[in-house]
Amino acid sequence: MPPLDDAWLVVIDPQRIFADPTSEWGSPMFDDALAPIKSLRSSFGAGRTIVTRWVPGSERPGSWGPYFERWSFADRPATDPVFDLVTPAAGWSNRGSVDCSTFGKWGEPLTRITGPTPTVVLAGVSTDCCVISTALPAADDGATVVVAADACAGSTQDNHEAALQVMALYSPQIEIATSAAVLSSR
């Protein structure tokens, strides 16, 4: 495990659309991931925690057109309450949320906060979509990434484990750990 003294916690998309079991995108693992996320957030504090939100963009370039045709229930204004953070996530960061209309959250809005080659601990939802889509470009960009596996929620348990297995292939740029291991390294 890399040193985590100056690491950032990035909590990816803790939103109602992913937490609600009746949502087509609801993760059955969301509630189980909340306790580890809260423990990590307590350790990192509001000043070293970044919370992201996925919001639909107003543009539908390329493959986004067919994507929103397939998932038309999510084609709503970014201000729709389904895109709100879950209640426990309110106040996790003193920066508000970093909103992106892409699966991956790595890019200028995050690096403006973290610097160009930080160490980041990723948590959130969904492991097999937005977490992996953030981890891979972050590692490509030179960031050191630790994925807190039990603080992530997949679309299914099998998809969660498959995404963790793929990300583990990128060691030492991406390390998979438990939230307890992250906490003991701080």
Q: Describe it for me?
A:
This protein is globular. With 186 residues, the chain is of the alpha/beta class. A six-stranded parallel sheet has the order 3-2-1-4-5-6. Helix 5 (127-140) packs parallel to helix 6 (157-168). It has a single domain (8-184), classed as 3-Layer(aba) Sandwich (Rossmann fold), CATH 3.40.50.850. The chain has seven helices and six strands, in the order βααβαβαβαβαβα. The longest helix has 15 residues, at 30-44. Strand 4 (119-125), helix 5 and strand 5 form a beta-alpha-beta unit.
Low-pLDDT stretches are none
Return the string of H and E elements: EHHEHEHEHEHEH
CATH overall fold name: Rossmann fold
Rg over alpha carbons: 15 Å
Strand content bin: 15-25%
Per DSSP, the total helix count is 7
Rounded average pLDDT: 96
Number of strands: 6
Number of domains: 1
CATH architecture annotation: 3-Layer(aba) Sandwich
Shape: globular
Say which CATH homologous superfamily is assigned.
Answer: Isochorismatase-like
**C-alpha termini separation:** 11 Å
How much helical structure, as a percent, in the residues?
Answer: 25-40%
Biggest beta sheet summary: 6 strands, parallel
Strand order of the largest sheet: 3-2-1-4-5-6
CATH class: Alpha Beta
Helix/strand/pairing category: alpha/beta
GO molecular function, one term: hydrolase activity
Organism: Janibacter indicus
Keywords: Hydrolase
Protein name: Hydrolase
Descriptive tags:
single chain; 186 residues; Rossmann fold; 7 helices; globular
